[in-house]
Amino acid sequence: MPASHRVARSRDIDHLPSKNSIEVCGALDWSVRPTGSKLFAMIARPALAPPISFRDELGHTVRLVDPRGGPVVVALASMPLAHDAAAVAGELRAELRGLGATLIVGDPGGYWRMRPDDAVDVLDQAVDDRFAQFGLGSRGQPAPWLAVLVIDAAGAIRFRHVERDRRDASPVAIVLDALRASGRALRAGRAAPLLPITRRELIIGSMVTAFGVALASACRPTPAPQAPPGKPRDAGMLEVTLRVNGRPRSLTVEPRVTLLDALRERLALTGTKKGCDHGQCGACTVMVDGRATLSCLTLAVMHDGAQITTIEGLATGDALHPMQAAFLAHDAYQCGYCTPGQIISAVALVADRRATSDDEVREQMSGNLCRCGAYPNIVAAVQSVRGQSRKD
Amino acid sequence: MRPIRFTRAADEAAAIAAAAGPGAAFLGGGTTLLDLLKLDVIRSDELVDVRALPLARIEPIAGGGLRIGALARNTDVAYAPAVREAWPLLSHAILAGASPQIRNMATVGGNLNQRTRCMYFRDVATPCNKREPGTGCAALDGEHRNLAILGVSDKCIASHPSDMNVALAALDAVVHVHGPAGTRTIPIERFHREPGDHPEIDTALERGELVTAIELPRSAFARHAHYLKVRDRASYSFALVSVAAALELDGTTIRAARIALGGVGTRPWRAHAAEAVLAGKALDPAVFQAAADTALEGARPRKHNAFKVELAKRSIVRALATAGGVA
């Protein structure tokens, strides 16, 4: 995005209607709680996030409002989070991707930013009054231990969770829970949308327009009360238990959710890739009850009780599955996006014993496309494992 | 994808009752249905999952035939010993289609009901008489290189995409269905329709009718059969032309022949007249050529698919020569 656009937008943000304008909507029922989360409460009266800005490593201005229209999740911590966050980066990214969100973390080491598909950015502002900037711990109270805030595309703080003394849980786990709770609330349609309008509309329109729409949407009548607990919350939501990589995982999903989306967006198993989403590329291949299956062309609710094996389920601890090791040894990929699907198909091929020659391997692997053209090395990797398994 | 309701049917009667509404669809493997739901080409709002029904068996029937349950997966049919032994044409045709993953998922009943791959049918931004009757056909003067030259109408030239159904056409399969009015059988040649004035109707199935099985009669064609598929890439691609050819030989004399074509017809295309040309003749390239010419006599190619006429003829000649062991 050209720099001039950024400047124009940020100026618009500075001229957003004041906090008082939001309180006009104070009659809103914000008390609906996100699904089952004790950690997280929606706040009754959305306040505007403080006008803090940062510079990232490229010198671009980073604000607490995402110019692309996604929510910004801010986690403020009194202890370093970076090390723990790195350990669960995959899960964090999956949740961020599901929300379309950016995560900004402020800890004693400074601020840093994580987006679903980019490297972590270190931001330039290291402030000690980070809690105070958000109005937390500023009235003689000690600073909280951890706070998580979700800021919507209009700059309003829509979720807030503050931990003052509960130190038994890992702080990163709390951040992850907070992300999941917001995601569930959004998906269940029980929260006013964090994205008040679609991203495309947002990019076309100005932030001022966006804010107007946000207000209008926030002022709409509250949705009808949900069904009582114990019954499906929404008509048509179904319970399904998938046995994923040996673990039973129970989900409540809309019937239209594909197995692929359930694995990636609900279970944070993002090893399985979404390529074409129409059964033409094989990137989403998983094993269902021992058969290579396109997870994009099947619904999660069709697999209650089924054994699902994803790429995450192949290794034993740190010991790679032989096919994973063979792909490494034979350099059987370039960009790696098709690789999880290739490996699952290759494992199925070896188990099925329907291919012997290179040509037969190519035919049996034909449902997995590789845009990088790593095919010769893929065939070599498969053949190396297949040869071994024949001796077994 | 639009919101859908989902029900699991416990038995055939429940499935048929659940699928009585206009927006309902039976869900088997899902490989066609979910693809088209995502594209908004099919707008069913009620999916009736029939996969729990006991319809996946492959078993011999009286008279030397074979009954294949509608829920048998394509993979299971293709690798079933009975099929490989006595109906190899069917096995070869199935394995020429799709990919291992899709064959693992797709059912026989679903494959019978597979929809065309015409790009205009799949693109809701364009007119299509098959998708929305009366809107016109964008393919007639558009991109139709891979579309049909046989059985076409001025409303639709969409080609039938299945390989399996081409073999079924050659093998005189019979489709068993169960619907609100009871059970009935439909010969495979009457199951798939030509578009005519109603391209939106692909098959002879009535609303709420569920395919329960196909039956293959005993075949004398197992020893001399060949499925030839010609396509733009070596595998995992729809046919430009495919030929299911099977011969019953008496020495070097053709006692009877079966020819069915894929990729060129608006439905699986059985070439009876060409078969008649072969009957009683010797295994001879000139005879194969005469049969091929006959098979394409009614072809109505358009600008981009005229090449299919010659391609189909040469494919028929080669498939017959291969089937007869004289290639």
Folded structure, characterized:
With 392 residues, chain A is of the alpha+beta class. Chain A has helices spanning 3-14, 19-23, 82-87, 89-99, 130-133, 171-187, 199-204, 207-218, 259-266, 322-329, 339-352, 358-364, 375-391, and strands at residues 41-48, 53-55, 61-63, 72-77, 102-107, 110-114, 121-123, 146-151, 156-163, 238-244, 247-253, 285-288, 291-294, 307-309. In chain A, the strands form three sheets. Chain A has a seven-stranded mixed sheet. Chain A has a five-stranded mixed sheet with strand order 11-10-14-12-13, with helices on both faces. In chain A, helix 4 (89-99) packs parallel to helix 6 (171-187), helix 10 crosses helix 13 and helix 11 (339-352) runs parallel beside helix 13 (375-391). Chain A starts with a helix and ends with a helix. Chain B has twelve helices and twelve strands. Chain B has helices spanning 12-18, 33-38, 74-79, 81-86, 88-96, 100-105, 108-112, 164-170, 188-191, 272-278, 285-295, 307-323, and strands spanning 5-8, 24-27, 46-49, 58-61, 65-69, 174-179, 182-187, 210-216, 225-230, 241-250, 253-262, 269-270. Chain B has a five-stranded antiparallel sheet with strand order 4-5-8-6-7. In chain B, a hairpin with a 6-residue loop joins strand 11 (253-262) and strand 12. Chain B is globular. The mean pLDDT of chain B is 97.
